[in-house]
Amino acid sequence: EPEVTQTPSHQVTQMGQEVILRCVPISNHLYFYWYRQILGQKVEFLVSFYNNEISEKSEIFDDQFSVERPDGSNFTLKIRSTKLEDSAMYFCASWVALTQETQYFGPGTRLLVL
Amino acid sequence: QKEVEQDPGPLSVPEGAIVSLNCTYSNSAFQYFMWYRQYSRKGPELLMYTYSSGNKEDGRFTAQVDKSSKYISLFIRDSQPSDSATYLCASGYSTLTFGKGTMLLVSP
Fold first, then answer.
1. Which of the two ends of chain A, N or C, has the fewest CB atoms closer than 10 A to its terminal CB?
2. What is the average pLDDT score of chain A?
3. What would the pLDDT profile of A55-77 be if each residue is shown by its tens digit?
């Protein structure tokens, strides 16, 4: 069964460093998402991506964040200068089309900023 | 206002019980309603989804949506210890708004 994969599973970084989280969405899916979950809190939407551009973003997704689909399979989230409060689980999700099925989530990357 | 509210629990039941999990939402524009299961420190795993109102059944799981009252339910029949997890409801259209999740504990 196709699935969304994410790497790395865990990342530890120093405050102020740049991190790149990687995702491989399900191959025939068209919509791509990043969500995050701070420990003990709700899963929160960050950004959606369709047709090689951002289609929607939340207020969390400020200038420190960027997304990219560098090739036909990968989807990345970059945090330019990490802060302590960026520590969270980051989930990638993909969706084949808005009128079909729903979003499937990857296993997540646990980011710890020290 | 984009809010989904869910009782965090924990909800403890004996094996074999019928479990009822519920959410309310506030945005009338929401069209998709999902239930995800999440084990500790893992990604949300899709259980059920419905589009607009109505019921949907899949094995031991039944999802119900009542758009008139903005109420979302998940019923689990013959609950098993392996069902112990946090259950997340989510709704929206192109993006999802999640509830905080209800922790379910099914004891043998």
1. N
2. 93
3. 999 999 999 999 999 887 899 99
Chain B contact set for A104 (CB, 8 A): 46
Cβ burial, residue A13 (10 Å; 0-12/13-18/19+): middle
Residue of A nearest to B102 (CA): A42
Q: What are the pLDDT digits (tens) for B14-49?
A: 999 999 999 999 988 888 899 999 998 889 998 988
Name B103's bridge partners.
B86
Chain B residues whose CB is inside 8 A of the A41 CB are: 100
Q: Which of A34, A58, A104, A105 should one mutate to test binding to chain B, selecting the residue with the greatest count of B CBs within 10 A? A: A105
Q: Give me chain B's average pLDDT, please.
A: 91
- Candidates B22, B21, B26; CA nearest to B3 is B26
**What is d(CA B98, CA A44) in angstroms, rounded to the nearest whole number?**
7
Alpha-helical (H) ranges within A1-114 are none
In the sheet that holds B71-76, the strands lie side by side as B4-6, B19-25, B71-76, B61-66, B54-58
DSSP A84: G
Contact B12, B22 (CB under 8 A): no
Burial classification of residue B23, based on how many CB atoms lie within 10 Å of its CB (0-12 exposed, 13-18 middle, 19 or more buried): buried
Q: Which amino acid is at A52?
A: N
| Residues written for chain B | 108
Q: Which long-range contacts (CB under 8 A, 24 or more apart) does B60-64 make?
A: B61/B35, B63/B33, B63/B35
